[in-house]
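User: Hi! I have a protein structure encoded as tokens and I'd like to know what sequence might fold into it. I'm fairly new to this, so please keep things simple.
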């Protein structure tokens, strides 16, 4: 169902109506795209594109029995070869197999597919701007506590829906973990390389981890210990990459999640801690984080989870989760991805959380075992 029968282009300029028709036909057979206009295209290096390029399209249908919208967002492979194909496949599987069943706010998918050999993929999603969506980042988030609270509510609903689900041994067996699967293998192979390169080039990153009493090998070791530990805790479906830039705000105070490329089965505090530490300025995080953890805990219980950890236990896992946020989340990210200010602010927020939460001390029992 997910494999493309053609070589999908890495550029909107090479796209054809027939290729779009094939994408849509995966979920909406009988729909035909006759022509399309490219309204806007965004590529890597333009400040807000990380792993996939995007194109805003206006579709002209010959047949549209499902009444699909005309203005859509297309995600497509960056032209860098097959090395990161696993994250494209992972995201496409989420949207085609699970998005409509995940029970939270995320973009409606119109169609998609991938090529397992080349990693080429196309993913057609609704244009969220038509709903009045806005996309906060660390430089522009006018109501950070309200927005992060709304994201926490979505995460509680998501995690409760798949809490210790038997489906992970059935129709959701394709969902990877932080310890096993192509995405895990990709990160284990690539993150040390990109982090080492970034540390060579960026003095502020070298100073930052030195101020935390850490080195790159220690971060690698700590991340492995953290993920092994989290695998022993209650498992659920995770977004996997819940930094502020992967969320959106809707009118009425609602929030949603985009960019599901790192979707995995794992421990819920991985998601929750990341949005708290990146979504709030330092002073507000210090003031509100315990309230937000309690909000998450209450949300799980409200949605029917019985074996919810105590607030103190969640606090400890919140402190430990910072390891992944620093190492995988931001240390290896180039300024080309998001710009210097967004990169530096996220790193500062995560590093400050490490100090405030005493992450090093929280990790000691896991490293000693």
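Assistant: Happy to help. Inverse folding works backwards from shape to sequence: for each of the 369 positions I chose a residue that suits the local structure. Here it is:
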């Amino acid at each position: 169902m997910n494999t493309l029968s053609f070589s999908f282009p890495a550029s909107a300029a090479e796209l054809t109506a027939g290729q779009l028709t094939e994408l849509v036909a995966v979920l909406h057979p009988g729909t035909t795209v006759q022509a399309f206009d490219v309204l806007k295209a965004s590529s890597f290096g333009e400040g807000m594109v990380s792993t996939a390029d995007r194109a805003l399209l206006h579709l002209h249908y010959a047949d549209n029995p499902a009444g699909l919208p005309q203005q859509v967002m297309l995600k497509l492979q960056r032209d860098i070869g097959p090395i990161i194909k696993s994250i494209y496949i992972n995201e496409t599987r989420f949207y085609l197999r699970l998005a409509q069943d995940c029970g939270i706010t995320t973009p409606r998918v119109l169609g998609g597919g991938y090529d397992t050999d080349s990693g080429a993929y196309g993913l057609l999603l609704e244009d969220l701007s038509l709903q009045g969506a806005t996309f906060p980042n660390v430089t522009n988030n006018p109501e950070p506590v309200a927005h992060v609270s709304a994201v926490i509510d979505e995460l509680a609903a998501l995690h409760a829906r798949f809490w210790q689900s038997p489906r992970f041994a059935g129709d959701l067996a394709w969902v990877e973990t932080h310890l096993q699967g192509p995405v895990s293998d990709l990160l284990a192979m690539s993150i040390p390389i990109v982090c080492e390169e970034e540390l060579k080039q960026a003095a502020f990153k070298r100073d930052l981890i030195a101020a935390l009493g850490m080195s790159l090998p220690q971060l690698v070791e700590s991340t492995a210990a953290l993920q092994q530990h989290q695998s022993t805790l209650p498992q659920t479906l995770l977004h996997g990459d819940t930094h502020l830039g992967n969320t959106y705000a809707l009118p009425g105070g609602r929030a949603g999640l985009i960019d599901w490329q790192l979707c995995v089965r794992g421990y819920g505090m991985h998601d929750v801690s990341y949005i708290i530490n990146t979504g709030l300025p330092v002073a507000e995080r210090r003031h509100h984080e315990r309230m937000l953890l309690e909000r998450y805990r209450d949300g799980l219980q409200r949605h029917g989870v019985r074996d919810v950890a105590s607030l103190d236990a969640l606090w400890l896992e919140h402190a430990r989760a910072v390891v992944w946020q620093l190492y995988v989340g931001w240390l290896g990210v180039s300024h080309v991805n998001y710009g210097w200010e967004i990169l530096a602010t996220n790193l500062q927020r995560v590093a400050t959380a490490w100090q405030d939460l005493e992450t090093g001390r929280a990790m000691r029992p896991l490293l000693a075992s």
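A useful reference point when you look it over: The chain is about 45% helix and 15% strand. Feel free to ask if any position seems puzzling.
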